[in-house]
Design goal:
Strand order of the largest sheet: 1-2
Distance between the termini: 29 Å
Protein name: Sidoreflexin
Number of strands: 4
Number of helices: 11
Pfam families: SFXNs (PF03820)
Number of domains: 2
Largest sheet: 2 strands, antiparallel
GO molecular function: monoatomic ion transmembrane transporter activity; transmembrane transporter activity
Strand content: 5-15%
Order of helices and strands: HHHHHHHHEEHHEHE
Family: Belongs to the sideroflexin family.
Shape: globular
Structural class: mainly alpha
Keywords: Amino-acid transport, Membrane, Mitochondrion, Transmembrane, Transmembrane helix, Transport
């Protein structure tokens, strides 16, 4: 909308995303804007300006000549670059907007160079290094992980991915007449296994210290160690889902293209990378939208001490909300 704020009968509410986050479609629209890789090219000065606009607006201060679209553009940039719990600017490679360009290069390499040991080790190491950055950057809550935990989770995921990839490659070599497509799918199996290790380990402090739970008005009710039991599996499923189109369908498509008369082996890497980029551009926002980022949980499902604390409050809520992370 080009309408200026001073002429709005009712000012926009930017305490939540522009689209209804209770619907899959609304969440998908939200992530198509915040996970847009073009957000990576926005200058730090523009991001800081967007941050100031959002924070000032929440305090009732705004430029009356600003349009509604300009306000929402600032909110989109703020959501894409700043952590929803801490408000800190996120490391650029850890932002969801970096998922498509970074993963298309890494995944393209894994799916193209999947047969020789040095290639397998190199690309899985690069991939888990990138995943560790993303998982840490998008962790839920305000707790800081200690260096030892970060290092162990990184080593665990890298070792798990490599063990899975090398084991499957070894078994396929022993299997005479194994379909060539199975070898192309080994990286997906390794990635799915590594995500199941990396994300819980990277965020294990949430199981001991909890993550903040809030009422419908955003007031913190306390820290729950039960909420991560719901949050982290959802994140794992979303991450694995992101990999399905480019790491499962991509190899199937390339396997068919490789049979064409015009195909040459030199085309494998660029074709695989382009396929990954196209599919990731679609699967990343869709899979981020599978579950609400601000998920809900009934108070009677929380740990007993937190239940008792909340129920003693005036007008205690029946449902509380937490940031599941991405």
């Amino acid at each position: 909308m080009t309408q200026v704020l001073s002429k709005c009968e009712k000012l926009p509410d930017i305490s939540s995303p522009r689209w209804d986050q209770n619907t899959f479609q609304g969440r998908m629209y939200h992530f198509f804007t915040t996970a847009n890789c073009l957000n990576l090219f926005v200058s730090n000065a523009t991001l800081e300006r967007a941050r100031n606009i959002v924070l000032d607006y929440k305090q009732g201060k705004y430029d009356p000549n600003m349009t509604v679209d300009e306000l929402w553009r600032a909110k989109t940039l703020y959501d894409s670059a700043f952590h929803p719990d801490t408000g800190e600017k996120m490391f650029i490679l850890g932002r969801m907007s970096a998922q498509v360009p970074c993963n298309m290069l890494i995944t393209g390499g894994m799916l193209t160079f999947y047969q020789k040991l040095p290639h397998v080790i190199f690309f899985h190491w690069i991939n888990q290094s990138f995943n560790a950055i993303v998982n840490y950057t998008n962790r839920s809550g305000v707790h800081k992980q200690d260096d030892r935990t970060l290092f162990l989770s990184y080593c665990g995921a890298t070792t798990g991915a490599l063990s899975c990839a090398l084991s499957f490659n070894f078994l396929l070599k022993k299997w005479k007449n194994a379909p060539p497509l199975l070898a192309r799918l080994v990286p997906f199996a390794a990635i799915a296994f590594a995500n199941a290790i990396n994300i819980p380990m990277m965020r294990n402090k949430e199981f001991t210290s909890g993550i903040p739970v809030e009422d419908a008005d955003g007031r913190t009710m306390g820290f729950s160690t039960v909420a991560p039991e719901y949050a982290i599996p959802q994140v794992v499923l979303s991450r694995v889902g992101m990999a399905v189109p480019n790491m499962v369908f991509g190899p199937v498509i390339l396997e068919q293209l490789s049979k064409a008369t015009w195909y040459t082996p030199a085309m494998a890497a660029p074709l695989q990378t382009l396929l990954c980029g196209f599919m990731l551009a679609i699967s990343t926002p869709i899979c981020c939208a599978l579950f609400p980022q601000k998920s809900s949980i009934q108070v009677d499902q929380l740990e007993l001490p937190l239940q008792e604390y909340i129920n003693k409050l005036p007008n205690p809520p029946k449902t509380v909300y937490y940031n599941k992370g991405l």
